[in-house]
Write a structure and sequence with these properties.
The chain has 264 residues and is an alpha/beta fold. The chain has two domains: 150 residues, 3-Layer(aba) Sandwich (Rossmann fold); 107 residues, Rossmann fold (3-Layer(aba) Sandwich). It is built from 13 helices and ten strands. It has a six-stranded parallel β-sheet with strand order 4-3-1-2-9-10, with helices on both faces.
Length: 264
């Protein structure tokens, strides 16, 4: 059985690359819902339905474990997937998100953390809620960045600088110690963000966290690990392909990939 990785678009390729590097022996399927990206401006019910469809599709392709490598879906749909969908449909399989593992990693000491994320993720206050559980002394400043995912998915990074400055300035004005990139897409913008904020503010990016947390999860859950096939096979699937697609995927993953177009 395989490990499935799902994202609303192509941003999850960054985490997928990091996971494969950390855990190369496993078989993986990546699914990007490129037909309906971005999820960040959609209703909670729509995000849940889209996520459930993707999870169901990946389970039917023999995935024992699925990583929702999308902060919007993790914040708006994961809990319901785990509590309502899995017990009825796939009680012996698991779906994990990216928010709780990230919070476990960054919530260890008092700080003021800026969270840069999609509109839906910010409005859910998922990071604020989870971080307050881990460390009530942490102060959270949330900032919506609705234009970043469309810019990345349309291969228009040349327009990102001025928009980034407008999103990051409020966080800097609040004197945050760290900025958490609360979307897997945003990792591709790390260098640009670092140039804006300077050396004093730390940039926290999820591809530096999730692979290690997944490795630890599998060590803690040998009953899941023993189900997983280890033939180093990788499958990449998408729901739509536009003219910029190959260039964006290569930028995010680091090399050209062969994608299968799917419907579900």
């Amino acid at each position: 059985m395989r490990i499935g990785i799902f994202d609303s678009g192509l941003g999850g390729l960054i985490i997928t690359k990091a996971i494969i590097k950390k855990l190369p022996k496993y078989d993986y399927i990546y699914l990007g819902d490129t037909k309906r990206v971005p999820y960040g401006n959609r209703s909670q019910e729509t995000i849940y339905e889209f996520t459930k469809q993707a999870v169901d599709f990946l389970f039917k392709q023999n995935c024992a474990l699925i990583i929702i490598a999308c902060n919007t879906a993790s914040s708006m749909a994961l809990r319901r997937i785990q509590q309502e969908y899995l017990p009825v449909s796939y009680p012996d399989r698991r779906v994990l998100g990216v928010i709780v593992p990230t919070v476990e990693e960054i919530g260890k000491r008092p700080k003021k953390i800026g969270v840069l994320a999609t509109t839906s993720t910010v409005e859910s206050h998922a990071y604020k809620k989870e971080l307050s559980k881990v460390n009530p002394k942490i102060k959270i400043v949330e900032q919506q960045a609705p234009l970043l995912v469309p810019i990345i998915e349309s291969n228009a990074l040349q327009y990102a600088d001025s928009i980034l400055k407008s999103y990051i300035k409020p966080l800097m004005n609040k004197k945050v110690d760290d900025i958490l990139l609360g979307s897997t897409h945003y990792s591709i913008l790390k260098a640009k963000i670092k140039k804006i904020v300077g050396e004093k503010i730390k940039i926290i990016s999820q591809e530096e966290i999730i692979p290690r947390k997944l490795k630890n999860y599998l060590l803690r859950h040998p009953e899941i690990d023993k189900k997983l096939s280890k033939n180093r096979k990788r499958i990449f699937e998408i729901t739509d392909k536009n003219t910029n697609f190959d260039a964006v995927a290569k930028t995010l993953f680091g090399r050209k990939l062969k994608f299968k177009l799917v419907n579900y």
